[in-house]
Specification:
heterodimer; A: 4-stranded antiparallel beta sheet; 11 strands; about 0% helix; about 55% strand; B: mainly beta; 6-stranded mixed beta sheet; 5-stranded antiparallel beta sheet
Amino acid sequence: DTEVTQTPKHLVMGMTNKKSLKCEQHMGHRAMYWYKQKAKKPPELMFVYSYEKLSINESVPSRFSPECPNSSLLNLHLHALQPEDSALYLCASSQVGQGANTIYFGEGSWLTVV
Amino acid sequence: GENVEQHPSTLSVQEGDSAVIKCTYSDSASNYFPWYKQELGKRPQLIIDIRSNVGEKKDQRIAVTLNKTAKHFSLHITETQPEDSAVYFCAAFMDTGRRALTFGSGTRLQVQP
């Protein structure tokens, strides 16, 4: 099983709402990632978790709050977002260690902020 | 940090022709170089990858070459087909330090029937 599962697939939220994006993998991967992708742009790294600890935060605004409750799950909590935060949010996972680099992406969550 | 440059930004070829996309990276510590194909509205899909101890890798009509000295790597697609039309991203990754993919800016490939 090489699946990374993301829910929901589509989300529309108001600027005062609180919502969460969820990501799950059962490949035993110990690194998990959140990327944001705007139209016609490459994916842009937001956060990296390694062994359930936050290892990289790419200076993401605090209205995005990541959480890694266990080795299989990764959440992205959203609060007080702006319309410019509308994008495709991609979760990914990989093994940790030398030579263990293949990174698997989920199908993404399309977020629209109104 | 790592910086990946990708050229060209758009590429139009006739069906059956070859297509070549080139990338350069800045950090010599990068040791893994995947290529992703992304169709409209879909996730990036890994199509081929190469590790720094290898100079070339082929998978049917797709090949990737790596020149570690010059810090560049290329994607070659032969006998292109209309279904190859998509955006292609190169990326670089390092085992140590900043363990995350850095993507190139993407190439929109259009294969004309």
